[in-house]
Write a structure and sequence with these properties.
Length: about 220
């Protein structure tokens, strides 16, 4: 019988692109004030650079294109500390409300600690969960797929691995550690998200695949 349900955060419970857009808006505002270029133009340019090159070099390319003399790390900080409101997917609210009084609920999430905790605050979801682990709080080497956080989670609830399930969106890292520890695993494939097109390689796959979190209810009942 399942007693513990642990979720990934980004692109599992909410659309991380909303966070990215908030960050872009904040950086566009800062640069627009400083260089008198329209905020919409800068924002649009960042979206274009993201589509073309993916993450990682957007601010470098932007500064090069406009000859901005900026410390990239400063722009990254502005991006990271953007305070726009985030919102869970509708099915996340639905399923958390259904599960919260009958199961122990947790989150295990990767990413820079301060950024992840800001997201959690902005989403205003702490009340739904009994235990939230930001892997970065233990150190960079403990990010998924490291098993440590999954073991910590079991320990906290005094729970056996076969009583626990982990739900995530990224087959490159979400299910490896979870499986090694003995969790059941569920992959959510949504209409958008960075990882929806990633193929699962052998050993990386989840036990179940769903397209809507409400499908979890039946899976958990039948395990
Ligand atoms: Mg994710």
């Amino acid at each position: 019988m399942i007693r513990l349900i642990v979720f990934d955060l980004d692109d599992t419970l909410y659309n991380e692109f909303e966070f990215v857009k908030n960050g872009f808006k904040e950086v566009a505002k800062y640069l627009s004030n400083k260089y008198a270029i329209h905020i919409d133009e800068l924002y649009k340019k960042m979206r274009e650079l993201l589509n073309k090159y993916g993450r990682g070099t957007i601010f470098d390319r932007l500064c090069e294109e406009y000859s901005f003399n900026e410390e990239i790390m400063n722009l990254v900080e502005i991006y990271r500390s953007a305070e726009g409101k985030l919102k869970l997917y509708d099915d996340s609210y639905e399923v958390l409300k259904k599960l919260q009084y009958n199961y122990n609920l947790g989150i295990i999430t990767d990413g820079k600690s301060s950024v992840q905790w800001n997201k959690i605050k902005s989403l205003d979801i702490e009340n739904y969960f009994d235990k939230i682990i930001v892997t970065d709080d233990f150190g960079r080497e403990y990010w998924k797929p490291h098993e440590y956080s999954y073991k910590k989670m079991l320990e906290y609830f005094n729970c056996k691995p076969h009583e626990a399930v982990y739900i995530g969106d990224n087959p490159a890292k979400d299910f490896i550690g979870a499986r090694k520890v003995g969790f059941y695993t569920v992959r959510i494939i949504r209409e958008c998200g960075d990882n929806m097109k990633l193929k699962e390689e052998k050993g990386y796959e989840a036990d179940f695949t769903i397209n809507n979190l409400n499908e979890l209810i039946n899976i958990i009942k039948n395990i």
